[in-house]
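User: Fold this; tokens only.

Assistant: Input:
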Amino acid sequence: MTGTRSWLVLGLIVIVLMGSCTAMAGNLEHYPASLPALVVMLVGKVLNDRFKLVKWPMEFILWSAVILILFNLIHLHFKPF
């Protein structure tokens, strides 16, 4: 999948992941951790388009969710109470 369609799928993945994180958190406090994860997802998408690291989009959805969870756990670990 290349071109505009893959970017639309990426946009849909980002909207679903960020929306579900917001729904689970109940607020927007996850954004300091989620924004770097989004940057990693965008870089991963560009690398995937060039080198075909994972099949699009199911494996990418899995890795995007794992990256988002990992970044949020790291943020929670270092966040002062």
